[in-house]
Amino acid sequence: MPTVSVVIPVLDDAEMLARCLAELAAQLRPADEIIVVDNGSTDDTAAVARAAGARVVEQPTRGIWPAASAGYDAATGDIIARLDADSRPPADWLLHIEAELVDSPEVGVLTGRGVFYDGNAVVSGLGQVLYIGGYFWSMELWLGNPPIFGSNFAMRREVWRDARTRVHRDRTDIHDDLDLAFHLDLATVVRYDDRLTVGISARPFSTWSGFGRRLHWAYTTLAMHLPEQSPWRRRTARRRRAREEERGVPGAIA
Question: What's the pTM?
Answer without folding.
Answer: 0.91
